[in-house]
Structure formats: C-alpha cells, structure tokens
Design a protein that fits this description.
With about 170 residues, the protein is an alpha+beta fold. Helix content is about 25%, strand content about 40%. The protein contains 5 helices and 10 strands, in the order αββααββαββββαββ. The strands form 2 sheets. A 6-stranded antiparallel beta sheet has the order 1-2-3-10-5-8. It has a 4-stranded antiparallel beta sheet with strand order 4-9-6-7. Strand 6 (about 110-115) and strand 7 (about 120-125) form a beta hairpin. The mean pLDDT is about 90.
Length: about 170
C-alpha cells in the first residue's frame, strides 16, 4: 500500500533521534560478521511511548489483520552499502501463517521477494510511508532481501511490526 502514512521523512528523523540503534553481529559461515545496517527490537508499547504515532500504526494494523503486533523492529539502512541478505523471518518457524507488516520511511529502496532456495525475484520499490505486509505462508515459501545499491542513496528506515509466538502450552 502506498502512503500508508504521510510525513515519513520526518518520522524517520524522529525515530533516529529517539530510538537507540545498534550494529548487530551474526555468525555467518565460519566467522562472525557485522550486519550492514543498524537495528533495534522493542516492545510496541515501549516504542510507542517514545514515538506515539507508532501506536496509531499498530492499532490500524491490529484492527485490519485482527491480531496484535506487540513487537517492533527498527532497521536503518544508512546509505546504498547497507543491506540485508536473502532470508525468511524466524517467526515463520513458530507460526503457520505469520503476518509481518513493514512500513518504509525515507529513500525509496528495492525490497525483493523470491521463492525459498532461489528463483526469479519480484521487486517492490518501497517509498517513504509505504506499507508491505508479508502474510499467510510467505515466510515458509519465500525469502526477502534489501540489496546493496550501485548508486548513492539517502537513508531508509523500516518499522517492522510482528506478533509474538503462541504460548508453549497452547
């Protein structure tokens, strides 16, 4: 959905100013590498207390999709060299049909989706304020990435709304 929210560039600046962002390190093959982006993962109510419009977005998503999104990930792609490799989100290991809602802010960047294991990708160019929702079996059947770019670009920030795993006794 284009223009899920207006004022995306201002919201990007607000989030960067108010939310601590970190460089994550992950094991990859035989070494540990720094992920080429900055991130933070918060409870939605914590982020909403820092930036109240996040509560409004979560409320709209919860009403429409009829489920709570209590966890929020913030990912800042500072420039064209920041990226995230092909992957499926871990929530797919816990839920049969998870929903992940991504609100993009700042510079337009490609968001790619391809079948698990490879194949032809589908390209979505998300602009500031756009919403993309990966639902149903998407996390089981597809992988996604935000690739590096060959041309200079400004910062892009994604707000990723997620739901929690079901209780262990369910």
């Amino acid at each position: 959905m284009t223009e899920f929210i207006r004022g995306g560039d201002t919201l990007l600046d607000t989030l960067v100013a108010r939310v601590p962002l970190f460089a994550e390190r992950r094991p990859m093959y035989d070494k540990t590498v720094e992920v080429p982006r900055l991130s933070n993962h918060l409870d939605a109510d914590v982020l909403g207390s820092l930036v109240p419009v996040v509560n409004d977005m979560a409320g709209i998503l919860e009403t429409y999709y009829r489920q709570a999104f209590p966890r929020v990930g913030i990912n800042l792609y500072r420039h064209e060299r920041d990226s995230v490799a092909w992957h499926a989100d871990r929530v797919g290991r816990t839920f049969r049909q998870p929903a992940i809602a991504v609100v993009s802010l700042g510079a337009a960047r490609p968001f790619l989706l391809r079948p698990v294991g490879g194949g032809k990708s589908r390209r979505f160019v998300l602009g500031s304020g756009d919403l993309l929702v990966m639902g149903g079996t998407c996390q089981h059947c597809f992988e996604h990435s935000v690739p590096k770019l060959s041309r200079p670009t400004g910062p892009r920030l994604s707000i990723t709304f997620r739901h929690d795993p079901p209780p262990k006794d369910a």
